[in-house]
Write a structure and sequence with these properties.
This protein is mainly beta. 11% of the residues lie in helices and 35% in strands. Strands 1-5-2-4-3-6 form a six-stranded mixed barrel. Strand 3 and strand 4 form a beta hairpin. The longest helix is centred in the last third of the chain and has 7 residues. It comes from Aureimonas frigidaquae. It is an enzyme of class 4 (lyase). Its EC number is 4.2.2.-.
Length: 112
């Protein structure tokens, strides 16, 4: 059974840098990477968990499912699919400062 966003993030909200990626390979969950899907890679959140990601520059939000591991670039907290990055409005920039919280909105704080 997949963890819910609240279980995955333990009710915590975190802030940091996000980037996007669009590979044509299998993800850590075993499924093929779909650049148009609302998915993401995170180092520690359980595969299958859902989190709400907010672009702190424009307040756009998207809910993504964690299906891969990463990012492997120092200082990055989450790698989003290209589709998720498009909805958040940062494909051109390549990265953005984001807030990540449980998809059910039960986060304990917000980013400054």
């Amino acid at each position: 059974m997949a963890a819910t966003g609240a279980q995955a993030a333990n009710g915590k909200t975190s802030c940091g840098s996000a980037s996007w990626y669009a590979l044509k390979s299998k993800t850590a969950s075993g499924e093929m990477m779909n650049p148009a899907a609302m998915t993401a890679a995170h180092k520690t959140l359980p595969l299958g968990s859902r989190v709400k990601v907010t672009n702190l520059n424009n307040s756009r939000t998207v809910v993504v499912r964690i299906n891969d591991r990463g990012p492997f670039v120092k200082g990055r907290m989450i790698d989003l699919s290209k589709g998720a990055a498009q909805k958040l409005g940062f494909v051109g920039a390549g990265h953005a400062r984001v807030q990540i919280e449980p998809a059910d909105g039960s986060g304990t704080r917000s980013c400054a």
